[in-house]
Amino acid sequence: MSNAGADGRVEIDARTFNPYSQDFIRAPDPVWQVLLRDYPIAWHKDLQMWLVNTHELCDRILKDNRFTPNFRAWEFAPPPKPDEQKNDFDLAFEKGFFAVTPQAHLRLRKLTMPAFSRPVMAKIDAKIHDLVTDCFDAIGDAPSFDVYDALASKIPVRSIARMVGVPTDREDFFHDFAVNVIKSTRINLGAKERDAAMQATLPGFAYFREEIARRRAQPEPGNDFLGSLIGASDNGSQLDDYEILSVVFALITAGSDTATDLHTYLLHGLLTHPEQLELLRRRPELMENAIIELLRYGSFGKMPFFRFATEDIEFAGQQIRKGQAVGVNISAAWHDPARWENPNSLDITRKLDGNIVFGTGAHFCIGTYLVRVQGSLMLKTFMERYPNARLAPGQGELDFEWNHHNARRINRLVVDTGLNPARRAA
Questions:
Q1: How far is residue 394 from each of residues 9, 165, 398, 412, 416, measured CA to CA in Å?
Q2: Ranges under pLDDT 70 in the chain
Q3: Which burial class, exposed, middle or buried, applies to 59 when counting CB atoms under 10 A from its CB (0-12, 13-18, 19+)?
Q4: Which of 170, 216, 256, 422 has its CA 20 to 30 A from that of 54?
Q5: CA–CA separation, 176 vs 173, rounded Å?
Q6: CB of 378 closer than 8 Å to CB of 134
Q7: How do residues 55-96 score in pLDDT, each as one tens digit?
């Protein structure tokens, strides 16, 4: 419900938008359409943040440098620590993409470019290809499998682990590190939970500090991703240890927890639209467009992106105070009928120019390449191995992780592989 605040601001509460409601998690679009139609921007009294919902306003705010992703700019952020009390998490965060000035951000982007070069990415592609193959080999000729257990819970975090050079026997350790990195700055979690998560990141940061020191002591740091970051130079400027840690931090934030939902929603979208799956089989050149459209269609975000006002700002007719949180509700924006014709239809041929599926502006998602590689390799392998696959009866026994802090996470999606008994016996 909505009413006008004392200063004339538009206000809503959990009766209008409750991201924790099971009804919303099951079927979010009716809520999104109310927000898009009636509340393009509104103050959410229960979440204590502004909520920006339309595609046009989300696009504007993501490109507006007066709104920062820096958690430390939030009015309720923990107070700054004295330098002598800062730990590895604090120091890596301060040096990272989300916290530095625009000028320092450009420097970071420039120095990290060699790590995203074609030769380095080719090596990472090969590692992810092997990982995807291993996951499907483990499924083998089974009559059915759970997408979450078999693919989604394994591929994303392990992909990043292999990208940054974590040995396979330490991938579980890296998974715990990644989950806690993400939770450490989620403002929808309580202060105690955030602090506990931050403390739990410290063994992971210590591991990478030791690895960076080991690489620096060698004649050559290596030509993989981490080695490319260590060796990068521009007019004598190089990345220090905490700047390198901040890149790992950013990759985790962009491409691990979120990408878990990538795999379940890709397969759920295609298997509930078999004509689109058949079209992708016939036209594999549509793969990249299909992945973006499936992400737009599925819109698995429960909570919005967070931005924080760095000054008092008038935006879209509302007065936003310095330090206030702004929830950039891109999941709603992806279903905005003012931007997308028939937004609730899946069309892998849709013209997607100007989409904000991976964000926009200076903080365009650093994990975009990794997400696309994972998604395309997974879908290609799935279609090759299981040409007659379909969801198990009951819409794949679909279930959600109702209490996930960020996503409408599907934690059960059963696929019948469609393999006949004779092939399985063979």
A1: 45, 41, 7, 12, 12
A2: 1-6, 254-258, 359-368, 421-426
A3: buried
A4: 256
A5: 5
A6: no
A7: 999 999 999 989 998 888 999 998 989 999 999 999 998 998
Mark 113-142 as b/e (b = at least 16 C-beta within 10 Å). Answer: ebbbeeebbeebbebbeebbeebbeebeee
Neighbours of 172 (CB within 10 A): 12
Domains located in the chain, CATH noted: 2-425 (1.10.630.10)
Q: Which helix (H) or strand (E) holds 43?
A: strand 41-44
DSSP structure string for 55-114: HHHHHHHHH-TTEE--GGGSTTSPPPPPGGG--HHHHHHHTSTTTS-HHHHHHHHHHHGG
The DSSP symbol for 363 reads: G
Work out the angle between the directed axes of helices 171-183 and 241-255 (0-180°, nearest 10).
Answer: 90
pTM: 0.88
Which residues are bridge partners to 407 per DSSP? 301
What the block records as the tokens of 215 is 């690489």
Interval 202-232: pLDDT, tens:
999 999 999 999 999 999 998 888 999 999 9
Please write the tens of the pLDDT for every residue from 327-374: 999 999 999 999 999 999 999 999 998 887 776 665 556 656 777 888
